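Morning - orotidine-5'-monophosphate inputs below, output right after.
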Amino acid sequence: MEKLTQRVQAANSLLCVGLDPVGDDAQVVRRLAEVIDQTSKYAAAFKPNLAFFLSREDGVKLLRETVQRIPESIPVILDGKFGDIANTADHYARFAYDVVGADGVTVNPYMGDDAIVPFARPDKLVFVLAKTSNKPAHSLQDVALTRGGTLSDCAASVARKLDEQHGGIGLVVGATNADAVARMRSLAPDQWFLVPGVGAQGGDLQATLKAGLRPDGAGLLINTSRALWQAADAGAAARELAEQINQFRPVAV
Ligand SMILES: O=C(O)c1cc(=O)[nH]c(=O)n1[C@@H]1O[C@H](COP(=O)(O)O)[C@@H](O)[C@H]1O
C-alpha cells in the first residue's frame, strides 16, 4: 500500500492502466511497449490480465518482459482472479510475485479465507473480488444471506477482516453500478478499491467517484483496458482520463 500511495501522490493520478493485449505476436509486443511508455506518466498502477498472456504460446515470457518494462515506482497488479485452497494458492502467489514480479494480485474469495491469505505479504497488494462489473454477477453476488446482507457484502467483510489482520487487502468493485460502489464503501471505509468498468463497459465515472472516493480524495484505482489499447494515442487518452478523474476528487492527495 505504501508503494501505491507514493505513486498516487507522485503521479497525482488514480488511473490504473489495464493491459489486455490482443493482436498478432509482433503487433502485441510493439503495442505493449507503446502503451506502457506512453501512459506511464499518468499511471498510478498497471494491471496486466493474465488470460490475455496465457492465450499466447510464450505468454509467461511476454508477461515477465511486460512487467520489467514498467517503471519500478509503479505498482503492477497481476489480474489472475486466483482462488484455490491454501496449498495451491501458495503456488499461485509464488508465480505472481516471484516468477512474474508483480506487486499485487486479484483474488476470487469464493473458496474462503484460505484462498486469500497466501497472497498477503507485507509488501504486496491483494484485491478481493467483491462486487464485479459484469451484469450476470447478480445471480451469485446479490444473493441474500439468511444472516443478512448479500454474498458481495460478505466478501467485503472478509476482505476488511483480513486487511485488519494482514494489511494490504483491497476490494474489486465494478464501476457499472454506483449504488453498489457506495454500498461497498460503507462496508469498507478505508480500503483501496480496484475499479474496472469505465470505458468499454460504459461505467459512469463521475457517479463512481462520488460513490467511492474516500474523504482524502483517494481509495479508488480506476482501471480501463480496451479504451487505452484501442486509442489512436494511448498517452493522450490516459492523460485525459486521469485529468477527468482528478476533476472529481474533492482534495488532492
Ligand atoms: O478484476 C478485474 O480486473 C475485473 C473485475 C471486474 O469486476 N470487471 C472487470 O472487467 N475486470 C477486468 O478489468 C478489465 C476491464 O477491461 P475493459 O472493459 O477493456 O476496460 C478486464 O481485464 C477484466 O477482466
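Note: DSSP finds eleven helices and eight strands in the chain.

O.
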